[in-house]
Queue: 2 jobs
Job 1
Amino acid sequence: MKKLLALAAVAGVVLLLVRRNRSAKAEADLWREATAPTES
């Protein structure tokens, strides 16, 4: 039972980190797009 709980906790942390990393990357991409010099 304890093993299962630990496994679930680890999986939750990994998921959280992956999601955070993804949103940070998306935000960086948006910022890069917003600040890029416009070609006219």
Job 2
Amino acid sequence: MPKSITTYWNPLNSDNKAQWQAIAGLEGMVEELTLSVDQETGEYTRLTRFYPQADTKDFGSKSHNYPEEIFIVSGRLYDRAFEMWLETGHYASRPPYEVHGSFYTDIGCVVLEISFPNRVA
């Protein structure tokens, strides 16, 4: 089965707020919206929204055994693993096992993530 398809809608429009899901343990700080998923491979595209002052330091850094790509759609996000602000327009292609996070944002941030969990290292 190919990746799911939804055509021409704006997930950032306030009319679509109900589509977003809080991330367990980060309620009121971070939420996500899966845009598409391939049920066969597990590959997915999603948006993650960090509200102003969101801080994931209590969850520490993370890594996983598959590659992913991220693009900062809006705002800015501080990645403590790299001691770097990722701002609107930043892009990264993360290799498997790359440590990233924890994260903090002062003004809020929306991140586009494309993950490839079937491409394990």
